[in-house]
Amino acid sequence: MLQRPIPSSGEAIPAVGLGTWRTFDVGEGGAARAPLKDVLARFVELGGRVIDSSPMYGAAESVAGDLAAELAVADRLFWATKVWTSGREAGIRQMEQSLKRLRVARLDLMQIHNLLDWRTHLRTLREWKQAGRLRYIGVTHYTAGAYDELERVLRAEPLDFVQVNYSLGERDADRRILPLARERGVAVLVNRPFSEGGLFQRVRGAPLPAWAAELGCESWAQVFLKWILAHPAVTCVIPATSRVQHLVENMKAGTGVLPDAAARERIAAAVSGR
Asked: How far apart are CA 233 and CA 182, in angstroms?
């Protein structure tokens, strides 16, 4: 698995992580959780560490925390979650709740979800980081419409991470956010790598081009992910899945060669033409 350094510390993390939006928002029943337990177990076996969640994702934090405890892998994971509320005290209560749901004493990364009340929460996050309750701090968004504010925050505040949407179907971050993150020494987590499934709709029924084999790609998912990972500003991409087969495909994108600039353009042209 390709490892990428977090610029603020030099610590290396695997380039492919695991998102939990929608997929881990399930009930307490064993039948609903069994496939996710298999996904998490295989994720760790394949060298995965970064798992990203949020209080916004329903039961996802609790499910991830419970399954990691059952598998005894919690201490092998890089836990990233978010604060998503307004007000200092509400933010503190929510973050305390996330610690309990994830069953950890310290978080690796706490992010301010969609920049909600970010000035208030950023003060708290810095206090918690100083106290050793979390290791890294960051901000997130999932829409290009928020990039003006996101850019202002990145320019004004010292941060460890920014999480942003970026894919062949949503390339706006390429022009502004990714170059700025690289300039500022901020690690980048990429969400929505498949444009919420829109990229698969574009290539439905289309065979993989012959040149995909040159990149070690056996699926369109791997092509999409390798295109993202080839950007020098990207630290880790976090696709979500509830299927072991898809998890394995996604993780393979973090191995082998990555496309160069010419190959990235060829990939983009192949997808945009469909």
From this structure: 5
* pLDDT of amino acid 273: 62
Token pair for residue 167? 């894919």
Q: Element (H or E) spanning 187, and its range?
A: strand 187-191
Residue from 108, 113, 112 nearest 124 by CA? 112
Cβ burial of 86 (10 Å; 0-12, 13-18, 19+) is exposed
What are the C-alpha distances in Å from 172 to residues 27, 53, 101, 206? Answer: 36, 23, 34, 26
Residue 272 has pLDDT above 90, yes or no: no
User: Which stretches of 20-85 are DSSP H helices?
Assistant: 30-45, 60-71
DSSP string, 217-260: --SHHHHHHHHHHTSTT--EE--B-S-HHHHHHHHHTTSS----
Domain ranges of the chain: 3-195+235-255
CA dihedral 116, 155, 232, 40 (to 10 degrees): -20
- Phi/psi of residue 149, nearest 5 degrees: -70, -40
Dihedral (C-alpha) 62, 67, 73, 79: value to the nearest 10 degrees?
-30
Strand-pair partners of 228: none
**pTM of the complete model:** 0.95
Q: What are 196-234's pLDDT values in tens digits?
A: 889 999 999 889 999 999 999 999 999 999 999 999 999
Tell me if the domain spanning 3-195+235-255 has CATH number 3.20.20.100.
yes
Task: Indicate if the pLDDT at residue 255 is higher than 80.
Answer: yes
